Every structure is written in structure tokens, then in C-alpha cells.
Amino acid sequence: MLGELLFDVYTALSALMFAYGINFYYLVYRSTNNARKPNPFPLKDLPKVTVQLPIYNERYVARRLIDSVCQLEYPHSRLEIQVLDDSTDDTVQICKETTQQYADKGINILYIHRPQRTGFKAGALQEGLKTADGEFVAIFDADFIPPADFLARSLPYFSTKEIGLVQTRWGHLNDEYSSLTKAQALSIDAHFLIEQKAKSYSELFMNFNGTAGVWRKDCIIDAGGWGNTLAEDLDLSFRAQLRGWKFLLLDEHLSPAEIPVEMNASRKQQFRWAKGYGQCIMKLSSEILVSRLRLNTKLQALFQLTRHIVFPLSIIQLLLLPFLIAWGFNLSPVTGIVSQLTLGPFAYVYALRKIYGKQWRAKLPRYMYLLLFGEGISLTNSIAFFEGLLGSGGAFDRTPKWGMLTKRDNWKEKKYQTPFSWIAAGEMGLASYGVIVILMALIKGSFLLIPNIAVQTLGFLYIAGLTIEHTLRRGVL
């Protein structure tokens, strides 16, 4: 009786994961067959633009960011730059000095410091918005180096009044640094070239990625301003599109950024994103369901909000497997078809061919790192996702940036080191559990189960191993 119940649970989880897998293929199709691709219109009158730079304790990259923004090729009389500094360390002095240097050169740049970090990044953006003169608002995080022609290439796409956001694709300053940066770079590329591209200027909801985009100021105000979730970008994006605004991705317009090079820092970033999505489910899902949106728009919005549910589902499946194998249930059709064909390697190999064309084979080696990263980070994302579902609180724990651009750069002596995450102990436990499941599958002849379990097991070892290695490198464990 118990065995049949667990088998039914396992099958139901497989069916749910199958739905997310099929939806991934749907987005791949939409990303390569999106007919609605608007053209830019030459600007007759250059609009006033405010560039907001939210900064919090960024001593290594703050000056680099301000320098690059002050090199934007746009008339100074039509440009306002806000340095929104919530820092509590020597970043304050760095930002003040750099801002003053450019102000002395005639650039309209303002330094705004809040003694209390109320609302975190969203609070800083909202505070700057109160005095922003621009009709449009561009936003850059501290790890970005916007190209000089960023505004000249972005603004012409606000061709109609209904376009509220133009998002540029993230480029990579240090994707060759390590296996970790290669995995994250490929994940970011897939997000932009599949998910974001599929939704760009269509009936589907696209989200602002928190940086490297330009908002129409009226859109932000009309949607109610910046919210109080850890995914403030997703929150505002959905509220704006619920009110009829359209978003556009410029997939060929790159804004280079620094990728986290240390595992504890990357884990922190993933945790914040997953928790923010959980919070947005509780805040936005009911409004989406009762809206007059098309059924497909609603469905895709809910798929996006709940995307992190696949992480706990995959862990639960792993935990159920040894019992079902021991009791002799035939799991090969369920696991072989659902897990490996839809959410497994075939999906991403198919996607790589679509987004990279003839270069896809060159991307295969780093895909293996992404496969391990995606499986290994599942415990972190699961914990964060459920935290978001259960409460709306939490500090915006920003990802440290150290200016790591080449393999010669060393981060172990830098400030802002992230503490060792004891989630790694759980990952080691799941890896050990995975080894047991593989042995049981071998004994019972359930060979189709083994590839999926092996990838999960190696993924947990990869993430936990990097966490321990990077912590030991700093000499604090």
C-alpha cells in the first residue's frame, strides 16, 4: 500500500516536471520563430535620461562603474546620473570623490547617500526616482560596464508609447575565469536567448533583469513603483505588464558584466533570486489568475513564477527512488522519458543548437559544467524558494564583486568574503545518497535510472566541493 502511494507520488512529480520540460521546448520554439520584432525609429528630439547606479559597499568596482557611465555618448544637457550609494565603508569616499571629479567637468552627476538602507536596492531606486528629471531611467548594477553607445542604441526602440522597458542582453567580462564562470555564463545566455527572447514584445510576460535596461519613467510610476520583494525587478515587471505595458529585449545589444567567481558568492546570488521568485508567487499569482489576460499569457506567467519548483521536485524524486527500486516498481519508462528527455541533456543540446548555430559544438564542454551547476545548486534553490513562499521578509544580501576579470586575479584577500554555507553538508549527504541509489539500480538492473542519478550526484559533489575548496582557499574553515 505504501509502495503504491509512493509510486503514485513519484509518477505525479514526473508528470509535473514533464510539463516544465515541454514548456522549455515551447520557449525555444518561440525564441527562434518570433515574428513580432519591432524596428528602431530615429529620435527626432533626444529625451532627457536619468541613469541610476545603485551601490552598496562596492569598493573594487564603484569607480569603474561611474567612469563607464560618464563616458556614455549622449549630450550632457540631456543626461542626469544618480549615484545611489547606501554604502557603509570606504566606498562612500570613493563614490564621493569620483562623482565630484566628473561634476567639476560639467557632467550632471549627483551623489545620493542614505544613512539607512530601507528597502535595500528597491528603496534606493525609489528614492532616486523622486527627484529624477529623465523621461527615461536606465539602471546599472556595480558589476556592469555599459558600452558608450548604450543609450544611443536603446532609446530608438521606444517607438510607441506602450513600450515601458527595453532590456539589453548581459555580456560577460570574465566567463573564461573558471568552470564556475563558464557554467553561469551559459546559463545567462540561455535565459536571454531562449526565455527572454521568446517573450520579448509578444503576449508573454518578460521580466526586467535588474540592470542593463531602460525604463520609461511613466511605466514605473503607473505600475506603483519599486516593491518590497527580493526580486524587485520581477515584481515591478509583472505589475507593469498587468497594466498593459510592453517589454522588449535587444538580444544583439550586449552590456558586459562580471560573473561571480567564488562558490559561496554565487550560491548567495542564486539563493536571493530563488527566494524572490517565491515571494512574487505569493504577491502576484492571484492577480494574474483573475486578470483578463489570454490563457497562454497567464499560463506562461505562472510557469515563470513557479520555475524553481523543479528543484525540490527533483530532490524528492531522488529520495523516493531507493524505496521504489527495492520494492520492484518498474520506473524506467517514467524516468527515461520524463526526466532525461525533457529536463535532461537533450533539452539543452537542442537549445544550444538553436541559440548558437554553427558554434554550438564549441559550447558543449561548458554545458557539462552547467549541467553539474544546475543539479548541484538545487538544494540551495529549494530552501530559498520555500522561504520565499512562507514569508515576504529577508535582507537583500548582495553578491560581492571584486573586479575579477582574468585568471591572474586573486579574490582570496579581498573584502566582502561570504561565509561558508552549511548547505554544503546537505549536498554531500545527497551525493552519498545518490551513490547508494546508483548501486541499488545496478543490482536491480534499472539501468535507465543511472544517467540521471549520476548527474545529480556529481552535481551535488561539484557544488559542495567548490564551496569547501573556496572556503579553504581563504583559510577560514
Q: Quick recap of the structure?
A:
This protein has 477 residues and is α/β, with parallel strands linked by helices.
Describe the model.
This protein is α/β, with parallel strands linked by helices and 477 residues long. The protein folds into two domains: 198 residues, no CATH class; 214 residues, Spore Coat Polysaccharide Biosynthesis Protein SpsA, Chain A, CATH 3.90.550.10. 55% of the residues lie in helices and 10% in strands. The chain is built from 17 helices and seven strands. Strands 3-2-1-4-6-5-7 form a seven-stranded mixed beta sheet, with helices on both faces. α3 links the parallel β2 and β3. α1 packs antiparallel against α11, α11 runs parallel beside α16 and α14 crosses α17. The chain starts with a helix and ends with a helix. 50% of the residues are buried. The mean pLDDT is 91.
Primary descriptors:
477 residues; 2 domains; seven-stranded mixed sheet; 7 strands; globular
Helix-strand layout with pairing:
Elements: H1 2-32, E1 49-55, H2 62-69, E2 79-85, H3 91-104, E3 109-113, H4 120-129, E4 136-139, H5 150-154, E5 163-172, H6 179-199, E6 213-216, H7 217-222, H8 232-242, E7 246-257, H9 263-290, H10 295-305, H11 310-326, H12 332-342, H13 345-356, H14 360-376, H15 378-390, H16 423-444, H17 450-473
Helix pairs in contact: 1-6, 1-11, 1-12, 1-13, 2-3, 6-14, 8-9, 9-10, 9-15, 11-15, 11-16, 13-14, 14-17, 16-17
* Total DSSP E strands: 7
Q: Assign the CATH class of the largest domain.
A: Alpha Beta
CATH superfamily placement of the largest domain: Spore Coat Polysaccharide Biosynthesis Protein SpsA, Chain A
Tell me the structural class: alpha/beta
Mean pLDDT: 91
Strand content: 5-15%
Number of domains: 2
Strand order of the largest sheet: 3-2-1-4-6-5-7
Order of helices and strands: HEHEHEHEHEHEHHEHHHHHHHHH
Estimated helix fraction? 40-55%
Poorly predicted runs of 5 or more residues: none
* Biggest pleated sheet: 7 strands, mixed
Count, helices: 17
Task: Give me the CATH architecture of the largest domain, please.
Answer: Alpha-Beta Complex
Radius of gyration: 23 Å
Quaternary state of this entry equals single chain
- CATH topology term of the largest domain: Spore Coat Polysaccharide Biosynthesis Protein SpsA, Chain A
